[in-house]
């Protein structure tokens, strides 16, 4: 059809020819947009419905579905449309009733909504009553401009800006420098409940169609499109269509109960000024802000989450990962511990310094998380218990079955304030430092080492016991265990346990102060190779050959210079040295040396295969000399120094 032909000529064509020209037109518009980088606004029809027809004729084409990113449906009142048709002086229009126009509108919106969900198009019914009559064109223009700048990239930028804004607001209310961020998923993590499902359940109940509801609108969208950015946008649009949205959010929040373990953890944030807490949810921000406020924690726990499409913030799994990376990286440089329960949380958990998988009741927890966890750990190149990965699990309640096995995914206790994990959360120490400072057993074992009346063989025995304790309590958790067959006293074989790859482990006693404690470590791991080393050069390549773990043992770590020199020596020995796990065992570690501004602290935070285990940490900067030197006390040489 030539350029000079008009509407009458078009109407004279066959339906097949009309469809062809419609597709040519929208394809031309799409090509121009791609060529120029501009956005196109197309005024068009979805269907025509003459008054004497039982159903309308759809003029929407496959090319339309492949082209449009947004559909704004101007939902003008049927009575208004009827008057406009009657007053139209440019075209003769058949008379129709408002009832027919209303039926036409409803059917168009129903079909367009279904198409949008199937194809990822943003469908927005816009009631004319909600548009400012004084400036309708400007208001719609501003909305279209927002769509022009709406993309996953722009959403990512807004997420990062929100993180910066939240952190700035928190810092403005604190006297203490913030060094640690606790980042939480919401549903099935802080609570056993799914607030999104509860929201839709209450919405269905209000409409009295709960008996028909097998799945929620959000679940239907995710089942069709997966957990993509476009799918999350569709969910946000679904929320925007709910009348009484705020009231529903309030009702759900009032009936949401936090796990006692997490409520206790969040309350501890109130008394630790260097720790901030942030809930990052793919669900509804308003629900979770209300939940937090109900507990009186609104000042201390902030929420980043989604809502209706007008909030212009979509939270996906990538968004959660971006939040953690933003907090960990410049300019904030915080330590981050993240908590989550599902595969959507895994990118966030892996990006954090510590990622804690929350394991709930078998009947309600994520069915796909087990396989996702295994895959994630395998992708990190790990074929056994953790070498360098940062994932742990916490079990709520403590009677449920853990994920995988506890050697591959160690368990942390949120309620034990003396645990190494809780010390990491609130003590300001790097996660790769494990210590027993506040444990009663550690205080007992430390007493002989601090008693000036004890030296020589008695002191060496005390150090030996400490070495055995640290080996069994901490190194077994870091490295993991393996099973082997042992004879039972009743005459049959049974299962015993030993350190994973124990026969491929080297214990290095840093002479001379580390020897007694190293003997204790060797008592716990008798199959390990034992090496005395005065200097780093005493560690030779054959000591590392085919080994899985190197355990460096010293009595005291002051500034960390010695153990770092040994680490540097080991890492310089080719591929085996670069990848081998190094665990430092010490009786006492000066806490200042583990700070992020010191070399030891920086290495502990950056090298995932370098760990430090200590009986206790100390802020006493005293360095022993002569009679107070640990080596002299151990070997009775105080008078020689």
Automatic annotation (TrEMBL):
Domain Phosphoribosyltransferase: 437-637
Top-level taxon in the UniProt lineage: Eukaryota
GO molecular function: glycosyltransferase activity; L-phosphoserine phosphatase activity; magnesium ion binding
GO biological process: L-serine biosynthetic process
One Pfam family hit: HAD
A GO CC annotation given for this chain: cytoplasm
Keywords, ordered alphabetically: Glycosyltransferase, Transferase
Keyword flag Glycosyltransferase: yes
Annotated InterPro entries: HAD-like_SerB (IPR050582), HAD-like_sf (IPR036412), HAD_sf (IPR023214), P-loop_NTPase (IPR027417), PRTase-like (IPR029057), PRTase_dom (IPR000836)
CDD domains: PRTases_typeI
Protein name (database record): Uracil phosphoribosyltransferase-domain-containing protein
Biological source species: Pseudoneurospora amorphoporcata
């Amino acid at each position: 059809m030539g350029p000079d032909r008009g509407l009458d000529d078009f109407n004279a064509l066959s339906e097949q020819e009309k469809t062809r020209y419609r597709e040519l037109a929208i394809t031309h518009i799409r090509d121009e947009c791609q060529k120029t980088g501009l956005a196109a606004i197309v005024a068009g029809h979805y269907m025509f419905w003459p008054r004497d027809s039982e159903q309308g004729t759809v003029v929407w084409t496959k090319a339309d579905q492949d082209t449009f990113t947004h559909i704004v449906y101007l939902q003008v009142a049927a009575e208004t449309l009827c008057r406009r048709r009657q007053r139209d002086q440019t075209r003769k229009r058949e008379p129709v009733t408002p009832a027919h126009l209303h039926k036409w509108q409803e059917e168009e919106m129903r079909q367009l909504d279904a198409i949008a969900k199937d194809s990822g198009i943003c469908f927005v019914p816009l009631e004319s009553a909600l548009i400012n009559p004084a400036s309708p064109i400007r208001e719609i223009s501003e909305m279209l401009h927002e769509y022009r700048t709406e993309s996953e990239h722009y959403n990512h930028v807004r997420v990062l800006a929100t993180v910066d804004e939240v952190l700035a607001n928190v810092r403005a209310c604190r006297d203490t420098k913030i060094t640690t961020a606790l980042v939480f998923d919401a549903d099935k993590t802080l609570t056993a409940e799914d607030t999104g499902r509860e929201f839709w359940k209450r919405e269905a109940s209000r409409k009295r169609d709960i008996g028909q509801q097998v799945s929620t609108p959000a679940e239907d969208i995710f089942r069709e499109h997966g957990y993509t950015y476009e799918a999350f946008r569709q969910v946000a649009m679904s929320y925007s269509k709910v009348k009484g949205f705020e009231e529903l959010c309030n009702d759900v929040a009032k009936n949401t109960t936090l796990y006692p373990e997490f409520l206790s953890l969040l309350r501890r944030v109130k008394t630790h000024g260097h720790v901030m807490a942030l809930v990052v949810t793919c669900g509804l921000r308003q629900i979770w802000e209300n939940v937090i406020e109900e507990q009186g924690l609104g000042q201390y726990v902030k929420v980043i989450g989604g809502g209706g499409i007008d909030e212009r913030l979509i939270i996906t799994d990538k968004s959660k990962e971006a939040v953690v990376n933003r907090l960990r990286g410049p300019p904030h440089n915080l330590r981050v511990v993240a908590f989550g329960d599902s595969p959507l949380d895994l990118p966030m958990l892996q990006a954090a310094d510590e990622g804690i998988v929350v394991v709930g009741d078998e009947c309600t927890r994520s069915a796909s998380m087990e396989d996702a966890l295994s895959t994630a750990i395998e992708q990190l190149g790990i074929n056994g218990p953790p070498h360098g990965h940062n994932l742990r699990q916490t079990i709520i309640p403590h009677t449920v079955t853990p994920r995988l096995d506890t050697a591959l995914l160690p368990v942390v206790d949120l309620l034990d304030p003396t645990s190494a994990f809780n010390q990491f959360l609130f003590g300001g120490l790097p996660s790769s430092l494990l210590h027993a400072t506040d444990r009663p057993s550690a205080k007992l074992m430390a007493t002989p080492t601090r008693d000036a009346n004890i030296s020589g063989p008695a002191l060496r025995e005390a150090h030996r016991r400490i070495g055995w304790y640290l080996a069994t309590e901490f190194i077994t958790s870091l490295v993991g265990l393996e099973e082997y067959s042992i004879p039972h006293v009743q005459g049959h074989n049974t299962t015993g346990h030993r350190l994973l790859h124990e026969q491929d482990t080297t214990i290095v006693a840093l002479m001379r102060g580390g020897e007694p404690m190293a003997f204790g470590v060797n008592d716990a791991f008798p199959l390990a190779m034992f090496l005395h080393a005065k200097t780093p050069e005493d560690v030779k390549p054959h000591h590392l050959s085919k080994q899985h773990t190197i355990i460096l043992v010293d009595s005291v770590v002051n500034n960390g210079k010695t153990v770092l020199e040994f680490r540097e020596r080991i890492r310089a020995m080719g591929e085996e040295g670069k990848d081998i796990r190094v665990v430092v065992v010490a009786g006492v570690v000066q806490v200042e040396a583990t700070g992020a501004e010191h070399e030891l602290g920086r290495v502990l935070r950056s090298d995932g295969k370098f760990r430090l285990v200590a009986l206790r940490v100390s802020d006493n900067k005293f360095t022993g000399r002569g009679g107070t030197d640990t080596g002299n006390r151990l070997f009775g040489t105080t008078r020689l120094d």
